[in-house]
Design a protein that fits this description.
Elements: H1 8-25, E1 29-33, H2 39-44, E2 56-60, H3 76-79
């Protein structure tokens, strides 16, 4: 049954962000992949045409020697000019 849902992509995006945060807090690593188009996934899973996949999210425990890059936020002066 099809219903009109508003802001579907935004709601799914927020929920996915919360899920990724919870997984990280649980000690799991995640890898999000959003190929375009994602029709192939709907076909593989034999889902109805009105359902649209949003992203593939893989999670698991990282290896003991896994390294995370130390990404630092750039200073505002480095990216913006105010007149």
């Amino acid at each position: 049954m099809k219903h009109k849902n508003y802001y579907t992509a935004e709601s799914v995006g927020i929920a996915t962000g919360i899920l990724i945060t919870a997984l990280h807090k649980s000690g799991l690593a995640t890898l999000a992949h959003t190929p375009n188009p994602m029709r192939f996934l709907r076909e593989i899973l034999e889902r109805p045409a009105y359902e649209r996949p949003f992203m593939l999210l893989v999670c698991g425990y990282p290896s003991d020697d896994a390294e995370v890059p130390d990404i630092k936020r750039r200073a505002l002066e480095d990216i913006a000019t105010f007149v």
